[in-house]
Amino acid sequence: MNISKQLARNIVKNLKDVLKQEINFIDTEGIIIASTDEERIRTLHEGAKIVLDTKKEVFISEDGQFKGTKRGINAPVYFEQHIIGIIGLTGGKEVKKYAEILKKMTEILIKEAYLKDFTFQLRERHRLTIESLLFPFSHFDSPHLIELDFSSPYYVVVGQLPDNQELYQEQITPLLELLERVFSYYSQALFTVHRQQIIILVNRISRALLISLLDKVQTNFDKSYQLQLNFGIGSLCYTEQETPQSFLHAQHACEWITFHQSVNEIRFFEDLDLGILLPAIPSGQRSLYVKRILKSLTKEEVHLFKKTLTCFSKNNGSIKKCAEELFIHKNTLQYRLNKLHSLTGYNPRNYDDYLILKLAFLLIQI
């Protein structure tokens, strides 16, 4: 691992804040690449070469003892059992006691930087792989794509906030970290956020366990940000070529959740009934149908009759049960149903007319 000048500067700054001493970071060529004394940057430090040769700490007792040196302690910095640099602390004999802590702190900072960079690169590979599968014409072949094992079928999952709420950048990184923790057992699980949609690909998982893990994501995200996530799950993919279609199915499942004005819900496309058909109707056709059937109703009446018809349907046409649930008198309910018939020309007590009205009220929300 090569230490960049930027990382070396960050290490020097962080250590300076803690130890309040002059600090140098020296590369494996013996050149100071970061220092609290800017005049020493890009100069040779011969004491560092001794550290590299002996693989031991070297204390320099006086300034100029070796070319480019000042008195102080210099210690090798290891990463994965290889020396990747030398950290130096300027001062008298009193700085010797800081040698081990200086070395350990430097190695911790380097490991943190490595893990951060590794995580960033892995997330980029996830993004490129998912986009190349779901949007096959958007990317050329790349050596950074992850090869997926379709010997076990994949689920494509789409998650989004309800009511067109937006995910902000400061929420996306913690969300990806949450997904990585929750799905840590599944080495073939991939995640990314694409145009306000969370996309997950995962295999070797049961339906029940997938629901459990997504529920955990919903609960934790809601707890952290007071935001509710909905998840739609597409049909199983047995080949790469099936993933774009499964992605569309997952989006349809999400749209159906939004249509029902639900939050923190998880829906499988394969469990949908009308949800398969209605979102696929072109918006122009939906608007035309709704206007044709409900053109005589005001917005307030649309809301009132939709609520009434939903309750009427839920109670299988029972006037008594529906009136009780709506907390109104049976005669009031009868009056509403008659008025709906009068305004639209469709009688909700008649099965064929009921279907026409029900479809109109369903389509008005999509």
From TrEMBL:
Residues 146-254 form the CdaR GGDEF-like domain. It comes from the Bacteria. Gene3D superfamilies: PucR C-terminal helix-turn-helix domain. Pfam families: Diacid_rec, GGDEF_2, HTH_30. Residues 307-362 form the PucR C-terminal helix-turn-helix domain. Residues 3-123 form the Putative sugar diacid recognition domain. Belongs to the CdaR family. This is Sugar diacid utilization regulator. It comes from Enterococcus faecium EnGen0003.
